[in-house]
Amino acid sequence: MSDDAILFDVTDGLARITLNRPDRLNAVDPEAIAGWRAAAEAVSTRDDIGAVLLDATGRAFCAGGDVRAMSELSANDPTGGEATVKGLADDIHEGHRMLRESAVPIVAAVQGVVVGGGLGFMLVADVIVASDRATFGSRYADMGLTPDCGVSTLLPEAVGMRRALELTLSDRMLTAAEAYEWGLVAEVVAPDELDARARAIAEVWLSGATGAYGQAKRLLHAGGTRSFRDSLDDEARTIGAAFAAPEAQRRVAAFAAASARGA
């Protein structure tokens, strides 16, 4: 296995981003943060990527930031670590922003522990498949810290404000079944089925109208940040461009022909 903290590969249109610090429960350090941002930039700028599979090595998905590494980096910081940690958070957040705003759908395969900023890494995905042994919690306050990695936005979006507050303001850990009930994850499968199920979801995106899936993702995420009129205008532009594209022309013609045969 590579020693890289973030593994990135593109094969037949599928980008795979893998958190790869299993000895630290995939908590991210500066190397991982740089790799995360680079992978996100590739997804958002390359035209040969139609879907992303986000996963992790080892027994955990992600334990957030590597507090030990941050403490060591902050040793000579005259601000007491404030500037150091803010800079690292800014870099993580830029990666999250690029993935969130990209017109590329993302599926996450999640196993083991997901805590703190790990929730944000997970929730940047559009569809989340979890192992039935996965567990989920905030735990920021255990170390006197506050949410980062988009958790203050992504968690309420996923489960609603009341449940987001319950998870954030307590030491509660959710089981995979509870996470499914809350709407935190889309599916729960056996550990040995996790990778195959996530890949199957990605393959649907890649084998269908890939561009349409990506634009649908973009429209839905953008809708919550602007006026209804702006969303309607964007929808009109997007469906017009999609209708004129060769992929849609072929599919529309096939649908019309099938409809005519059945009339």
From TrEMBL:
Signal peptide: none annotated. SUPFAM superfamilies: ClpP/crotonase. One of its GO terms (molecular function) is catalytic activity. It comes from the Bacteria. One of its GO terms (biological process) is isoprenoid catabolic process. It holds the Pfam family ECH_1. InterPro entries: ClpP/crotonase-like_dom_sf (IPR029045), Enoyl-CoA_hyd/isom_CS (IPR018376), Enoyl-CoA_hydra/iso (IPR001753), Enoyl-CoA_Hydratase/Isomerase (IPR051683). Belongs to the enoyl-CoA hydratase/isomerase family. This is Enoyl-CoA hydratase. It comes from Agromyces rhizosphaerae.
